[in-house]
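User: I need a structural model of Peptidoglycan DD-metalloendopeptidase family protein from Mucilaginibacter mali for a docking pre-check later this week. Nothing fancy, just the predicted structure tokens so I can convert them on my end. Input:
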Amino acid sequence: MDKHRHLSKYILSHPEATGKVVDYNPAADKLYTFDFTATNTELSPDDVADTAKFSAWVDAKLAGENYKYGIGGYMEHRTLYARSALFDTAEEPRRLHLGVDIWAKAGTPVYAPFAGTVHSFNDNNNFGDYGPTIILEHDLNGLTLYSLYGHLNRESLAGLYPGKPIALNQQIGAFGEANENGSWPPHLHFQLMFDMEGKAGDYPGVGRYSEMEKLMMNIPDPALVLGFSYG
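Assistant: Understood. Predicted structure tokens for Peptidoglycan DD-metalloendopeptidase family protein:
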């Protein structure tokens, strides 16, 4: 069976085994959908490059109508990665966002949506990078799935070791401040992969737009797991 279909079927047929990534009540919590493509003319390149200004803009959007979370970004062709040389390559700059970002206050709890184990973790401490990152490994009726959590606080990495058991809905960390999360406004980068391709503690969250079709084969839409609509 195709891995994408296997994942969808598992989630639909095992609701008791699929949990949350953040605390979210669809009946009460409002979501703001962020757009970081070229159509967003509210943010200038200078604003995005200045973490304090960027954070203030995000905070204002969420506070405007009392949104609990901002969300969006799966396979979004973003301009904002020009803020860091980390995403520049000789052939083609990386601008395609591969996961979903959930924007909220620093300290927001993060949970494991499936039972599993710690695959790897690392503090990817570069400007524009993930900062503290945790990757979990899950066995979903024979399907191996990895889930990545980036931009956490450093305390989230305490006590971890590869193979550590993680329970369904166990809190695994919290959103980090800009001074520890790779210099971003506080948010969670949540991403799924079928194959880690030999990597540990890190997996690209931004790819080349020209490779979208290939990347989507390994990186399913996190909306399958998150359980709330956006876009």
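Before docking, keep this in mind: Helices lie at 3-13, 45-49, 51-64, 212-218, 223-226.
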